[in-house]
Amino acid sequence: MKLNDYAVLGKELKDTFVVDVHTHVGVNNNYQRVGTDADAIVHTMDRLGVDKVLCSNSPGAYSDFHWGNEVAAQAHAKYPDRILALAVGSPHYPDVDWDDYFIRDDRYFGMKAVPFVQGQQPIYHEGLMPMYEYADKHGLAVLFHSWQDSETRDAIKVAKQFPHARFILGHAGYTARDAAVDACKQCENVILETTFSAPTEGDLEWIVGKVGADRVAYGSDLTAFECSHILGTILLSRLTEAEKEQILGLNAKAFLGL
Amino acid sequence: MKFLDARIQLGQRCVLREGAPNTTEEILEVMQRCDIKKAIAFHAIAKEADMQAGNEELLKITGEDTPFLRQWIAMPSVFGEFYEPEELFSRMKQHNVTTLRLMPKKCGYPMKPYMVGKLMDAAADSHVPVFLTLHEDIAPFELYDLCKDFPRVNFVICGVDYRQNRLIGPLVEQCPNFYFGSSIYVVHGGLKLLSDYGCTDRLIFESGLPTGSATAAVSLIRYAEISREEKELIAHGNMERLLSGVTL
Question: Among all residues of chain A, which has the CA nearest to that of B27?
Answer without folding.
Answer: A201
